[in-house]
Amino acid sequence: MSDPTRPGTGRPLSPADRSILALETGAVVGHTVKIVELGGRVTAAEVAGRIRDRLPGAPSLATRLTGWPDAPRWTPDPGADVDTQVTAVAPMDGSDGWDEHRLRSQVAELFVRRLDRSRPLWHVAVAPLSGGRTALIWRLHHALADGMTAVRWAAHLFWDDPPPAPESASGTASWTDRPVPEAAGSPRPPRRTDTVGHWAGTAAATGASLVGFLAREVPVGGAPSPFDGPVSANRGVGWVRVPLATLKAAAHRIPGATVNDALLAAVAGGLRYWLTGHGRAATDLPVRVPVSLHPEPGSGCVDAGNADSFFTIALPVHLSDPAERLRIVAGQTSVRKHAQDARREDAMTRSLERFDATLGRFVDGWRTDPRRFALAVSNIPGPRQPVTVLGHPVTGLTTLAEIGERHGLRVAAISCHDALTIGFCADPVVVPEVQVLADATAAALREMLA
């Protein structure tokens, strides 16, 4: 990859980058938020110094957006001042720092502040927490980086000793879409490819596979989404932190289930509790599950941008039995992973966009239709070992993703060492009491072990 910070150079936005920027409206911002909680106090000047020293290793963070919307590019910004990108936030109530409740309310306020497009599209607020702790509240535009790239940048910019790149096997709390190896001893297909029978069989298999993909990923009809409605510029946020060991133990109750399946089943249980508690029907919901298409970990690619797709499942919200919810989820995700639905989705979308720009815009609208999915639930693997920042242990890592027009709720999870934090971002009118939903999700996970 060329270095976009060299004078006279720049990098055109990818179709994915442009699509993300196009989702911004008067009510919707395009960034995500990462919250790094530290077990000690650090200053904004110390954080800025760390980032300044390491910024050359993540050159996209030293670019700004130019030429929007006609010919957008990530253009080097030689005048970028890290001290303006990293600022201190002081408590206004005379306390020594924010407690958990105050942190959530302040993050919600920071979330809605748009990043300045005349500068690099990221910002870190350094906030004191109660008990002599610190929070780094990092807003990062999604057009610059997806979740996996953000984790790599966090390791490069913040961690004292960057750990190895996070693994992405099914047991480490991430979704990937890579070819499934053949089972040992399985019969191999005949090698001859020059017969009419072979080509006819291949065409039939391809057609059947495509029909199956379309049946899974292009739902027809369905109940209206409970989160479909006009969204405001206000946000409510919440999160819960659960031991990874609990998720793994829950997954082991169902043969073939994974940590990711346990997360989805817990979200289904939390939604069931929240919906019924607010007088709404606990009906199954189409849920989009983002999938990383990044190269294998260890490739050395830090500045990787956006490289993800997704598949869709029907989240079994109607089921009251936690074990049955997990069994249904695991069955659906297994089919989609083996069929590589996320890669098919990505290939189909790219082909249609290349064929015709108008068709590409139609596809973008179709991809974001709330009848196709009610909400997205993502999961990102963070550091597998304990990490520190400026000598202080990272005691919590949270990610929050922005909602969209007619999609009033978004769920995003991230792991850090031995815990998984599940973050919820919502329009507070569409989804009031979002922390109640977060707590109910943790309770639904515990029910899986009862």
Automatic annotation (TrEMBL):
Cell membrane found in the keyword field: no
GO biological process per UniProt: biological process involved in interaction with host; glycerol metabolic process; response to hypoxia; response to nitric oxide; triglyceride biosynthetic process
Record's catalysed reaction(s): an acyl-CoA + a 1,2-diacyl-sn-glycerol = a triacyl-sn-glycerol + CoA
O-acyltransferase WSD1-like N-terminal domain ranges (all copies): 13-262
Pfam families per the UniProt record, alphabetical: WS_DGAT_C, WS_DGAT_cat
Keywords assigned: Acyltransferase, Glycerol metabolism, Lipid biosynthesis, Lipid metabolism, Transferase
Record region (Disordered): 164-195
InterPro entries listed in its UniProt record: CAT-like_dom_sf, O-acyltransferase_WSD1-like, O-acyltransferase_WSD1_C, O-acyltransferase_WSD1_N
Molecular function in Gene Ontology: diacylglycerol O-acyltransferase activity
GO cellular component: plasma membrane
Protein name, as recorded: diacylglycerol O-acyltransferase
Stretches assigned to the O-acyltransferase WSD1 C-terminal domain: 305-448
EC numbers for this chain: 2.3.1.20
Pathway: Glycerolipid metabolism; triacylglycerol biosynthesis; Lipid metabolism
Family of this protein: Belongs to the long-chain O-acyltransferase family.
